Amino acid sequence: MGRGTDIEWATHTHNAWFGCTKVSPGCTNCYAEALMDKRWGKVQWGPGNERVRTSEGNALKPIKWNKWVADGLCGGCGHSPGDHGRSVDLFNATSGGACTKVRGKDREKVCECPGFVVRPRVFSASLSDFLDPEVPPEWL
User: Fold this and answer.
1) Which Pfam families does the record match to this protein (predicted)?
2) Which of 48, 95, 116, 121 is the most exposed place for a label (fewest CB within 10 A)?
3) Tell me, what's the pLDDT at 138?
4) 3-state DSSP call for residue 8?
5) Do 88 and 111 reside in the same domain of the chain?
6) Is residue 47 located within the same domain as residue 81?
7) Mean predicted confidence (pLDDT) in 8-36
């Protein structure tokens, strides 16, 4: 759980709770259940078990991750996302159709390539907080 993931459709994973409840066949072989049992020895699984919140700092991580970021390398000038930084200013600067660097209040035009900018995709692992465990599996 955290910044970076091998889940192909997500950028980060997050769970603000310890423990969960299996809601569908998709929960079979859940990595979080194995972590709670074998790694941390804190099994809190299934209906009727107390759910415990993680730290406030952990709960706020998705807000920190919810920033515009440059997507990949620029074809014309070879910038990497790290060259630009992560900010809404980057989105504003690059949405004009030119690759730019942001230096404080100044925006420097670097080349004519499009500025590809995306928001990270955060998967919240606390889906059982929102899903009724009685719904048919095909709804999930």
Assistant:
1) DUF5131
2) 48
3) 65
4) coil
5) yes
6) no
7) 72
* Alpha-carbon distances of 92 from 66, 100, 119, rounded to whole Å: 15, 10, 13
In the structure encoding, which two tokens stand for residue 40, read together? 């941390």
Give residue 101's domain range.
65-118
More confident residue, 107 or 36: 36
How many domains in the chain? 2
Tokens standing for residue 125: 């692992």
Both tokens assigned to 14? 């997050």
Rg (C-alpha) for the chain, rounded Å, is: 20
Q: Coil, strand or helix: which one is 99?
A: strand
Which amino acid is present at 70? A
Contact 110, 84 (CB under 8 A): no
pTM score of the predicted model: 0.40
Structure-block tokens of residue 64: 């920190």
